[in-house]
Amino acid sequence: MKRGLTGTYESTSIGGETVSAFIPNPLPPAPPIQLDGPLHPLLERALLALGRLDSVSTLLPGTGLFLYSYVRKEAVLSSQIEGTQSSLSDLLLFEMEQVPGVPIVDVQEVSNYVAAMESGVSQLRAGFPFSARLIRDIHEKLLSRGRGSDKDPGQFRRSQNWIGGSRPGNAIFVPPPHTVVGQCVSDLEKFVHSENNKLPHVVQAGLLHVQFETIHPFLDGNGRIGRLLITLLLCSSGILREPLLYLSLYFKKHRAEYYELLEVVRKNGDWEKWLAFFLEGVADTAEGAVQTARRLVHLFESDRVRIQNSGRKSGSLLRVHEALKQRPLSTVSEAASRSGLSFPATGSSMESLVEMGLVRELTGKKRNRVFIYDEYLAALSEGTEPI
């Protein structure tokens, strides 16, 4: 449905240029979203996929080992959209205090994203409401160090920003003036908590994302925070018990359509067209995550059987294998700590796993070696190739 312009323009001066900044109308859209038409089957598919994703813990021996790596995959993808070149293995090496294959500033930015996500989920579980304060807190974590740390972490902007172009005058889009950012975010918070808001939570998440990206309340990090809020809102509403839904890969694959639809909403008010794209992304992403979990279950079981039938000291090998399931990149000392074996026993078991083709050594050194559970990391890394 084309509702027309979904906000108002206000003239503002930046650097001697007069530009038109866009102030979005508060949510929900008017007239209301039409969910009983073409969106209905998409909504049903998305909700079914989310339900299956939420039950993924029944597929895995421990949701934590999947969540650990999956959160990091999302951090890599979301940061890649903003221009970093880090891979999942770069991030895991960085966390082990090893040297990654890209500039430290890139992988540090990805590490910040992990910290922001974990902080947000932790606060929600502690009973902290989905709020402007929560958004500022996770933004502070996101820009706590490295690139962007000079862009007022945790503070809504106090100056005008713009998207695209070399200056405000030739920008693709100019968000609201900084003087109304606080009110815009407050309106967004009221929408989420309104008792009159009967929209399904996944639809609310889709509306929230566009509105946040339109407000663009920070000097830096808006895209990453906006993608993060989708998952946090679904966790806050109880749709997901664990933060397992991440749309960055979907947005990365469909970047041109994504940005085009943001403009369609602002200029034409066609929220349904955006929601069709969004709900399809939710369903595709959730289904993909479940498929990955099933692949990992099959991989772990297949490798466990191979180890048991190897005729070697299978007990020790299985314990090291369990350690590698928790951390697919590991040193001998870290694997020893996780497995409870001695350093020599862990080293010997790791060598056996290398001989079996399950594990590969990365460094080529005799000391401080790093081992990789290749097939596991490969399954997790699909789609994370730098843009």
What is the gist of this entry?
This protein has helices at 39-54, 63-81, 88-95, 104-125, 132-142, 181-193, 201-215, 222-236, 248-253, 255-268, 271-308, 314-326, 332-339, 343-355, 374-381; strands at residues 7-14, 17-24, 329-331, 360-361, 370-372.
Walk me through this protein's architecture:
Strands 3-5-4 form a three-stranded antiparallel beta sheet, with helices on both faces. A two-stranded antiparallel ribbon has the order 1-2. The protein has helices at 39-54, 63-81, 88-95, 104-125, 132-142, 181-193, 201-215, 222-236, 248-253, 255-268, 271-308, 314-326, 332-339, 343-355, 374-381, and strands at 7-14, 17-24, 329-331, 360-361, 370-372. It is mainly alpha-helical. The protein contains 15 helices and five strands. The two termini are 34 Å apart. It folds into two domains: 7-291, Fic-like fold (Orthogonal Bundle); 310-381, Winged helix-like DNA-binding domain superfamily/Winged helix DNA-binding domain (Arc Repressor Mutant, subunit A), CATH 1.10.10. The chain is 57% helix and 6% strand.
